Amino acid sequence: MRLFVGVEIPADIAADLYPLARGIKGLDAQTPENMHITLKFIGNVDPGLAVEIDQALAKIAFEPFDLCVQGLNIFASTRKIRIFWAGVKDQPLMRQLAARVENALLALEECPDMDMRNFTPHITLGRNRNAARATIEQAVADHGDVSSRTFTIDRFCLYESHSTADGPEFRVVAAYDGTDGQNGTGDTQNFRDDEAFLEREMLGEIE
What single DSSP character describes residue 118? Predict the structure, then answer.
């Protein structure tokens, strides 16, 4: 299982952002349903550890906070632009949440693939396949003032990533609202039951 922790983006905002990358030739645009802000990339884990991760995340308390999209940017090396992304207005409460997620996962001492780079909140809009650097940089210049309505984050999620022929797909497998163990929507309760979780994996519900 390939897991990460993130927060969701409202569907209408994701739909508004999608054309920014969709129109760039050579850029693999992130579909609106896959857009999110990653709090921490965990990496590949076995189902038993996934249950421990879920239990650790369920204990994290946090205050709901407001966000809004603000600006465009890129992740790049000297040779190539890798990621075209939208930023968000700085929100200390989100940085606090990201730090609490990291600390909870570090306490497990069992996530060797976890990304330990500094937290840079962003919404991936596209991954560069062979788009010209100048084309992407022009898009950043043309739409650098992009913004969105304010939206509230009142839960964070554990996602599972699947590789497909059309690119990665992300699915929420558990959600947490910061009420100290009283979280849970969708698959969360079965996810915390180790035996039920392993049974569901054998039946192919979790890949």
Answer: P
